[in-house]
Specification:
Blueprint: E1 7-10, H1 14-24, E2 30-33, E3 52-54, H2 56-64, H3 68-71, E4 76-78, E5 80-84, E6 90-94, E7 103-106, H4 108-120, E8 125-128, E9 131-137, E10 142-147, E11 152-157, E12 161-163, H5 170-179, E13 183-197, E14 212-216, E15 221-226, E16 232-239, H6 256-266, H7 268-271, H8 277-283, E17 286-294, E18 298-299, E19 302-304, H9 307-310, H10 319-336, H11 339-369, H12 375-390, H13 398-404, H14 410-427, H15 439-449
Parallel strand pairs: 1-2, 1-12, 2-8, 5-14, 12-19
Antiparallel strand pairs: 3-7, 4-7, 5-6, 9-10, 10-11, 13-16, 13-17, 14-15, 15-16, 18-19
Helix pairs in contact: 1-4, 1-10, 2-10, 6-8, 10-11, 11-14, 13-14, 14-15
């Protein structure tokens, strides 16, 4: 692969930074343009980033880029969910049944900083902070930039452009306007608010650190992910409006008394451990979540990756993992083909997978906030593990395929997951315990409907 000037990446978030590392290690000249100031020197505003769940796909990508050893100290293992009921009783539900089936909590900012440092240390990579990309002159192959500090306009020629500039991507907007292609942005009627459950006075965790904590309440939920300093990042997912119970919505929580009443009513055990709850709630922003489908990701010399191409809601913990997988796939294609062909094949390869994980992420929200509480869900979870033990080459739980098997595509996991769910529904229709499951019938269904995974 050869280009006549540095390859340009817009966006120095996790995906853009990882892409720069992958290319820079092959001595490909790369210029990264980032709207924000250097996050290693300027602290991010509080409450603006959901903690990330790093899973097998993301870990595989970090290992491929040779940066995993630097990231590993930032990771807190979470082998399962800890479900909190209204009475403060908890139940631990493992994600998988093997020792390596673990997901990891990690700070988005800390991960980003590590990737930026690795990218910056490569001689062929240049990172330009505090510079926003506002538009593209397609005829002249120029990016129209603005220096955010000096407030001056810059015209930057580019040969090839990888847009990793997030869900609000200016590159996507320019590209779709030029091609008259469609972008659908499906905004979830639920928002999120990020809060803090601090460490104890002695610096200890106040909840079990080896779990993703969930307070499922049907139409909404609270979650908590551990940080390496003993605290938890707590996120409330709640409707913006609720026509039945007005105060069970963001629009209904108008003052500190409303906030305290809401939390003590629905999440009393968590509220008791969050002394700054009301103040943080009032000052931290309320985030929106959306699923973005774009009909075109490429135009000869331009390609969209990550959230710029296919933003998803965060409920499967796969947004970053999927974006990292984008980086690995695109890097491999760029080594095998000319860049225009690589960009085109990348879209063809990744689109079915991005659509599959977008659907599964929405489905997982219902599971986390509601279904996980039900006895039928827990029976089917236990049965899934048993069937995996009996038929390991044919039946792997869908959650496990997504989170712990980077070699299985999202599209395959989605398709097989639908078949497996129909099998589970049939087997548990009249059963309340595992002992009541007809395992011979299970074997017959699996052999007839699920070919072995290669």
């Amino acid at each position: 692969m050869s280009i006549d000037s540095p390859l340009t990446i817009t966006g120095a978030g996790p995906a853009g930074s990882l892409m720069a590392v992958l290319l820079g290690k092959k001595n490909i000249p790369v210029r990264v343009i980032e709207r924000r100031p250097d996050p290693r020197k300027h602290q991010e505003s509080a409450g603006r980033s959901i903690n990330l769940a790093l899973a097998d796909r993301g870990i595989h990508a970090l290992k491929q880029a040779g940066v995993f050893e630097s990231v590993a100290p930032l990771m807190v293992p979470m082998p399962g969910r800890c479900i909190h009921d209204l009475n403060g009783q908890t139940q631990f539900i493992p994600y998988g049944q093997h020792n390596d089936e673990v997901i990891y909590s990690i700070s988005r900012n800390e991960l980003n900083n590590v990737l930026l440092t690795h990218a910056e240390q490569l001689p062929s990579v240049q990172i330009q902070f505090s510079t926003s990309c506002n538009d593209i002159n397609f005829e002249k192959k120029e990016l129209l930039l603005e220096d955010e500090i000096l407030r001056r306009q810059i015209k930057l020629p580019f040969s090839f452009l990888i847009a990793a500039d997030g869900a609000n991507s200016p590159i996507r907007k320019s590209l779709t306007a030029r091609l008259q292609s469609e972008t659908s942005i499906n905004i979830l009627p639920h928002g999120y608010k990020e809060l803090t459950l601090p460490a104890s006075a002695t610096g200890q965790y106040q909840l079990d650190p080896h779990a993703l904590h969930i307070w499922p309440r049907g139409g909404f939920m609270l979650i908590a992910l551990p940080n390496i300093d003993g605290s938890f990042t707590v996120t409330l997912f709640l409707p913006f409006e609720n026509s039945i119970t007005a105060q069970d919505s963001f629009n209904g929580l108008k003052n500190k008394e409303h906030i305290k009443h809401f939390f003590h009513k629905h999440f009393p055990d968590a509220a008791a451990l969050m002394p700054n709850l009301a103040d943080e709630f009032m000052t931290h922003p309320t985030g929106k979540m959306s699923t973005i489908h774009t009909s075109t990701w490429t135009d000869q010399r331009i390609v969209l990756i990550g959230d710029a191409a296919h933003a998803i809601v965060p409920f499967h913990g796969q947004g970053m993992n999927c974006a990292f997988e984008d980086c690995i796939e695109l890097d491999q294609l760029m080594q095998q083909h000319d860049l225009m062909s690589a960009f085109t094949q990348f879209e063809q390869l990744r689109r079915p997978n991005s659509q599959a994980i977008a659907t599964m992420a929405l489905e997982n929200y219902i599971e986390m906030r509601d279904t996980v509480r039900h006895s039928k869900f827990q029976l089917q979870k236990a049965l899934s593990f048993k069937l995996e033990n009996l038929h390991p080459k044919q039946f792997i739980p869908r959650y496990s395929m997504v989170m712990f098997h980077h070699e299985i595509s999202y599209a395959t996991a989605f398709h097989r997951g639908q078949i497996q769910q129909s099998i589970l529904n049939e087997l548990t229709q009249d059963a309340e315990t595992l002992d009541q499951i007809n395992l011979d019938r299970a074997t017959a269904l699996i052999h007839s409907k699920l070919p072995p995974l290669s």
